[in-house]
Amino acid sequence: MSVSGIPLNPQQATFSADNAPRNTKVQERIRSVNLDAVFDRISLDMDINEISPIEALALLFKSIQNLQRLYSLIKQGNLGEAFDVKRAVFGDDVSMGRELNPKRRRSSQSAEMLRNLSSELELPIRKSSRIESNFEDLEEETFADDSSVLTTSSFNSRIPSYCRSDVDFDLSCKLIKRFYLKTPPSLSLEAYMERINHYSKPGTAVYLSSSLYLFNVAFGLKTTFVGLEENTNTNGKGLAEVRKVLPAAPYGTIQMIPFEDLNAFRLVLTVIRTASKLVEDKNYKQSYYCKICGLQDQDELFRLEMGFLFLINFNLMVNENILLRHLVRMKSFNENMKRYT
């Protein structure tokens, strides 16, 4: 049977503004947001709901611009040998960091646990075994009262802090390759993000969570917690005051994975989709989101989502305290980047 006479659908460009679901509402623009005024409002006393979704989108876009700018400077090698990525990101509070990386010295509790486990299982567990690493986060995050029940109030009283991710830097550089496009799309990243916002309408928390995830992925970080109780020794400060302390920079050096125009589009569509599934109660179908983002099929979206989850090592938990502190950290990062413009 000849197929020469069968009309074919015309090819459509990826990320084209013309190939989108119908939406009659006026599209909000990132440039309509006064970012300086938004940054001025940011503080640890504020309510996240004071930030509108379009303002949160503008903050996400600005954060991406800063990440791209920093990586470009690092790649060009114009910053000199004395340049420190950590100081560029965290400013002058880098000395506050404490060692929370996977290679830290094993505690006496961990050593005792290994001995007991080896005896109970009747297995010769090596001293270099990493089996206790499955419980390290739990050990670090245990409350002062050793409570076995994690209530909402106790969770919200925990102070987020940064530590280095368990994902190896070389592995992160390999995983990030999945997000690269062969050629830059005709649509700008700003217009692309406005399109996602126009047709899927994520909330403020989705955009702030997306910014946090990209920040952590870019520098190989994860958010951990420090338990804090009302009766904890806080040097005379009240709990509410102590909770306003910004999370310190991680111990040791940090590196930045590639973050540039060719991988920004897929990173953006993936991180927003991932955050939406975690934060929002209702989400559009995969097929609809593929149409919005210009992906060819749902399998491609699934592969991108899985790649991002492994890139961030499934460290997705967020709460209001985390997002507030990230907002202030984003403000600080933006001020630090002004030195290099």
Walkthrough of the structure:
The protein is mainly α. The chain has a single domain, classed as Cyclin-like (Cyclin A, domain 1). The protein has 14 helices and 2 strands; from the N terminus they run ααααααβαααβααααα. The protein has helices at residues 35-41, 53-76, 85-90, 108-121, 133-141, 152-156, 169-175, 189-200, 204-219, 239-242, 261-279, 286-293, 298-311, 320-337; strands at 159-164, 221-226. The chain has a two-stranded antiparallel sheet with strand order 1-2. Helix 2 (53-76) crosses helix 14 (320-337), helix 8 runs parallel beside helix 11 (261-279) and helix 9 packs across helix 11. The chain is globular, with a radius of gyration of 22 Å. Mean pLDDT is 74; it is low at 8-18, 94-108, 135-157 and 227-240. InterPro entries: Cyclin_PHO80-like. Residues 1-23 are annotated as: Disordered.
